[in-house]
């Protein structure tokens, strides 16, 4: 992993300020009549996946809805960048413009994280991930799936053991099936992390 120059960090801070202003304007425009723009209705969910040029900000938990939005924005940006390259008649050996994926996430659903990692691997445009603040649990799968990975100086990546829970009456065979699934997932995660980091299974 690498850190960035002060100029690069300043540039990203400027993009973040644009993001905040855009979200505030969007909140004001979408606020229901009779309510204050700063006091949205209780069922209002602010957007947490935003796109600015070739920068995508994933400031969200890893759940089905937000990750579906992330996939859509990645594919749209990929299509647009490739369209621009074609219209400019760039040679095949010209370095492609990457998609910068900024991540700030507490994590979330494991299967959703694995799905996003698979989707990212199919994108033609290079994707560079940047951890900003915290990238935890299933969100680390999204970051590590990128072609290049970066992390800001004061940011962290956090992983933990698989956890599961249940309640009520559970049959013995169901417990065995659950344990078999957990073992499969653990091995898959070992393989995923070891291929994309300098850590071996013991370290992980």
From TrEMBL:
Entry-linked InterPro entries: ClpP, ClpP/crotonase-like_dom_sf, ClpP/TepA
GO molecular function: ATP-dependent peptidase activity; ATPase binding; serine-type endopeptidase activity
Gene Ontology CC annotation, any one: endopeptidase Clp complex
BP GO annotations: protein quality control for misfolded or incompletely synthesized proteins
Gene3D superfamilies xref list: 2-enoyl-CoA Hydratase, Chain A, domain 1
SUPFAM superfamilies: ClpP/crotonase
Annotated signal peptide: none
Record family assignment: Belongs to the peptidase S14 family.
UniProt-recorded name of the protein: ATP-dependent Clp protease proteolytic subunit
Organism: marine sediment metagenome
Taxon lineage: unclassified sequences, metagenomes, ecological metagenomes
